[in-house]
Amino acid sequence: MKRIKLLSVLMALAVTVFAFVSCGDDEETTQQTKKDAVVAIFKNGNIDYWNQIATTVTTECKRLGVEPIISFIDDDSDAGGQLAAVSLIKNLSEGYNIKGIIAAPVFTATDHRVESKLAEVAGRSIPIIIIDSPVDEATSPLKGIYKAYVGTDNKAAGRLLAQKCGANDPSTILTARVAISTPTVDRYSGFCEVMGQELPLWETVDLDTPANFTAELAKHPSAKDIVFFNGNLCNSVKSAFKDVNVYTFDVYEQFLADLKNPESSIKGVMAQNTFEMGRQAVNAIFGSVSEKNIYIPTIYITSENVNADEVQPFFDYYKYDRRK
What we know:
Blueprint: E1 3-4, H1 7-22, H2 27-33, E2 35-44, H3 48-63, E3 67-73, H4 79-87, H5 89-92, E4 96-103, H6 113-122, E5 128-131, E6 148-151, H7 154-164, E7 173-178, H8 182-195, E8 201-204, H9 210-218, E9 225-228, H10 231-237, E10 245-249, H11 253-259, E11 266-271, H12 274-286, E12 293-295, E13 299-301, H13 312-320
Parallel strand pairs: 1-3, 2-3, 2-4, 4-5, 5-6, 6-12, 7-8, 7-9, 9-10, 10-11
Antiparallel strand pairs: 11-13
Helix pairs in contact: 3-12, 4-6, 7-8
């Protein structure tokens, strides 16, 4: 996988490509030497979720004989980093036939710079697939331009977690999420819909500390079931878990090990099928799509099905994770 975390490296690649193409004398010959490529612009490259998606995008592109060019940012709110990556696509197109863009654009209610730049660079000539978080159809500059959204139906996933987790008494539940994460709003909403009421919510502005989790838990002495709508938040505070049942979104290697340990606090993991998301995103570039929103079903993992075939891709990912 061409995993480009530093934008300076991506810029160097673009300059090199531009120089290579410029030295050709025959435009037709140059066009024939171009390699087909898919550009993927993801969020935090330090989070397993994004690397799982990127792994499959890479595999699918290689299967199709297409070069994957993947960039990450170091913070989920780094719109500037994504803007720099999008801006380089025009340079990359001098040496590659850009067949499509897979993007998880950073945006807020008042900041649509990345989406605007994507719309400017791709126009209607390069298919854009939005992945993970759907754009706001009312305000997004990509409205009417992007080809499809691939990701989780987060409200449905929240409902499913409420049905599956076994935490049937609302008085024992404390929920938690990172405030800047738009999908968790829908997960919380779906979860509360099934529980029949709004539940206590620990909302942080970023990943938090075990000490702060312990302090929050002390405010809710009856809480025995903790529901995390962000897997990375759960992972950052898990050393503080004691005498509670924990249910969380997203797969981390330790979560899988915990599910095999009957003494662990981790009782259930609502896995977004990151590998199928990556496959469907690449397929949506090269094929027709019957639906604008391509929702990928989640997988609820417990000690009972942790060894099932549908969970095996996660074990395979950690076995061969190149970051180790």
